[in-house]
Amino acid sequence: MRPDESIEALAGRVATLERSNRRLTIAICIFSAAFSAIIIAGAADNRAQTGDMLRVSGLEVVDESGQVRARLDVDKREGPGLALFDSNGALRQRFYIAYDSIPRLAFFDRDGTLRELMGVSLDGAAVKLFDESATMRAIMGLYMDGSTGLVLLDESSQVRAGVCLDENGEPSIELFNDKGESVYAAP
Prior knowledge:
By secondary structure, the chain is α+β, with helices and mostly antiparallel strands.
């Protein structure tokens, strides 16, 4: 396989991931907004009846069998957020605004292992992908200056490849050996 073919294949896979993440983000945002509207409407209805403010440290939504399926709370480490659980009680998704004011959306596998983390900061937006042992293996970012990048890491979290487009759209690529030494760079 020629290098330009592998870069084209990688670019196609990144584009597919970006579309998938965009759809997931939109769906989660719509669900979160609807869930929040239900909570606010319920609180407003309660205030209209009693004149009091509804204040709770957390709220759990359960299914017909009593299994917690959603939790709205303020986590001591992560800040305020909405967690969604599968029918077995495993955490599958959490949307939260961390104490550093960065909104994050995390996805977990069936075992509760973190597999994807998306966040938006003052510098831009990033998506981080994790393997089955929760080791970060890829980072894709879009920065405020218009530059984009993709970093691939090995199972030891060592950076092995980086591809980016600078703010002017100029591409570059760099490959690293297992010691972190550059073995190829272009341009």
